[in-house]
UniProtKB/TrEMBL annotation:
Protein name per the record: Glycosyltransferase family 2 protein
Highest taxon in the source lineage: Bacteria
Length: 345
């Protein structure tokens, strides 16, 4: 069973599509930490099959870390640690609420046990002011050096690098078999010294990333990032854009004026030249709504996840940070009902 973990701050309508797409494209169960504890979102998630919702107010108590990245890492690795003792959790994957995992399960299930982690290569949604019905039909893949040089020479990007071409990350995401002494990082599996560990790559492992794919999504996501605690670590031009958005959010402006300025930032720094990319023939046409995966059923995994997440509510969870205290993490999990437990590496 593949269990995906996410820390979200989003609307019910958007999360309905996100949950459905992930469950249809390879994920079996989602553990969703609702970062703003939105009651409507929590109620809907609780009524949805193959989902374990977590109320962030109960989860953190008075120990909520200020940084979003810290909360994400702790949440992901708490579930990874739970997966080490719950039979049936074969893989754990961290996703954001603008990401869809597309996995060929037959190929994944055929991998030998010696493969401990796999990488989902990023496919980024082409950014436009609007997409008809909100349905993106074109995605960017990572380009080769000759392709980047051509796109740069045609004026499509300012530097001939994939970091310039993509607006979001280029690292993709990793799924790992849950073990004690390796951790899920933001884009890598790491050891106790936070050294990156090898991953298996294949064309049938993809991550659809809806990074600011419309003007409205750009406003929603970047406003959330600017108001979710200390600045999230970003790279180069993305860091400059994050600082600009934070400055704009802090200005005392009428909402309509702020929106127009945000859209100006989107047009200048994010919107892609769809026509040019189409003429170059470098786009992928993918439909996440055509997935046919049926999530695996389990009589024990959902209840085990719910029970063990409940055991961790309100306690200090810093031991789940990459490189954290493994023995303390084990002790925190020890009170779980014995029928759920097994121990893996």
């Amino acid at each position: 069973m593949i269990v995906a973990v996410s820390t979200v701050k989003d609307t019910r309508q958007r999360l309905e599509r996100w949950v459905g797409r992930n469950l249809a494209n390879g994920v079996d169960h989602l553990v969703v930490f609702v970062d703003d504890a939105d009651p409507e979102v929590l109620d809907w998630l609780a009524s949805t099959s193959h989902v374990t919702p977590v109320d962030s107010l109960l989860w953190w108590g008075d120990r909520r870390p200020a940084g979003l990245n810290v909360r994400q890492r702790i949440n992901a690795n708490a579930v990874r640690a739970i997966g080490t003792v719950v039979p049936g959790v074969d893989w754990v994957l961290h996703l954001d609420s603008d990401e869809v995992a597309v996995i060929d399960r037959a190929q994944l299930d055929a991998l030998p046990d010696s493969v401990g982690a796999v990488r989902l290569a990023p496919c980024e949604a082409v950014s436009q002011r609007d997409w008809p019905n909100g349905d993106v039909t074109a995605f960017k893949r990572l380009l080769s050096e000759p392709e980047l040089s051509l796109l740069f020479s045609l004026g499509g990007i300012d530097k001939a690098t994939n970091n310039e071409y993509f607006h979001g990350h280029v690292g993709g995401k990793v799924a790992m078999r849950p073990v004690d002494r390796l951790w899920i990082g933001t884009h890598h599996v790491v050891d106790a010294q936070r050294e990156k560990q090898p991953t298996f790559d294949a064309p049938w492992l993809r991550l659809l990333h809806y990074e600011s794919h419309t003007g409205d999504e750009f406003i929603r996501k970047w406003t959330n990032l600017a108001t979710s605690g200390p600045p999230v670590r970003t790279r180069g031009a993305r860091s400059d854009l994050a600082a600009a958005v934070r400055g704009l959010v802090e200005l005392d402006l009428p909402p309509d004026d702020r929106r127009e300025l945000m859209l100006t930032l989107f047009d200048r720094h994010v919107r892609d030249d769809l026509d040019l990319l189409s003429r170059m023939g470098v786009l992928l046409h993918l439909d996440p709504d055509s997935g046919t995966h049926r999530p695996l059923e389990s009589s024990t995994v959902p209840s085990a996840l719910e029970s063990m997440v409940g055991e961790l509510a309100g306690v200090d969870k810093s031991c789940f940070e990459p490189g954290g205290d493994v023995e303390r993490a084990r002790k925190l999990l020890a009170p779980a009902p014995r029928r759920f437990l097994q121990r893996r590496g």
